[in-house]
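Fig. S4 source data, part A: sequence.
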Amino acid sequence: MRAAALLLALACTAEPGQERAPEVRRPNLVLAIADDMDPGHVGFLGNPLARTPRVDQLAAQGWLTPALYAQPVCRAALGVLLSGRWPHETGVTSNGAEAALESANALPARLRAAGYASYCAGKFWEGPPPTYGFDAPAANDERFARGGEDGQDGLFAFLAEQAVRGPWFVWWAPSLPHTPHRPPVRFAQEFAATELAVPAGFRGSAEDFQAAERASLAMHTWMDAEFRRLLAKLEELGELEETVILFLADNGWSTWRVSKGTPRELGVCMPLIVSAPGQVRRGLDAGCLADLVDVHATLLDYAGAAPAPEDRGQSLRPYLEGRAEKAGRARLFGSAHARRGELYALYARDQRWKYVRYVRDVNSQELSPGPRLAEPFRRKSGVEELFDLAADPFELENLARLEEHAERLAELRAATFAWWRETGGPELPGGR
């Protein structure tokens, strides 16, 4: 649709006998953020019981890494996407942190400076979206995808208006599949008769487990249905093939394992799907380690916006377009904070090994609510953990005390503390 309008405009403004070169438009941008997604409840990561056909299709046709470091909780993750910096640099470390995110250089403000109109659909913690550079809506509606079939009407009106103008950016963040897991009947019925094996490590009742699993699967199907509506609208408007889509989750979730609010991989390691027009890489790229700051950098790169000195991200675009041989990081780093913002752990991982250092005592009551069926989570200050993610993806066996891993432990410890110092992390308890 936009291409036809552009050709018409050129035809009407050209001088007689004069031909004008077609204008090259920058792509539209969609940042799709699932809310507390369980990687084990989507089809594209291998669960045959999951019913997420539209997201699965995006993964099959696009590029996918299963190793994107998000954040343990929602607000911290969204703050990274907005700022391009890590939580300890902005002060937006947890859902209860009192710090206000700087608005002047936020992602939508920088995209606006690059000529993009933008819309904030769904979850947004930092106040009125226009303060951060969004064109609409004037006030945030966090009920998106929880309030009925009309939840995207405002967004769809914006897209219809912008389709002939472009380029545009959409922050798409429904409160799905976040708790409470109360899916509409039509989605719940899809799983009412689904047989689910209770895992050997689960210590609760089989009835509780199966009810929670069915509800979670249905919530992920609901999320997929809303995403399908968005992509259908883009296709209807003729915009889908001119749009870069990045799909991810703010943090993780599990029906019964320790996850959200903690440094566990189920809480912080999410998939990233990138779908882009033109000749770009496709398929699963299990060797690519990425961070939310890299998502911020990639969006700015596609918009033609130069990075700022304080940006921490590395754009994936050169790699996706075949202009770079490698992408991602050798190691990923992160910090975990309690509900009111207090740092309690630092962590790092490479392709195989995961290191965690707890810098203060912590227990489940101090963290954002995790899975109701999970075992209580508590750690003492000074505890170190080392996990072999290849052999132990759920981080059940701590290898930190084994002499055979002493050198590896020391190397990861040194790298973690170096990252913390180099990125302006405050002094740690005990002077480390």
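Fig. S4 source data, part B ends here. Residues 128 and 139 are 5 Å apart (CA to CA).
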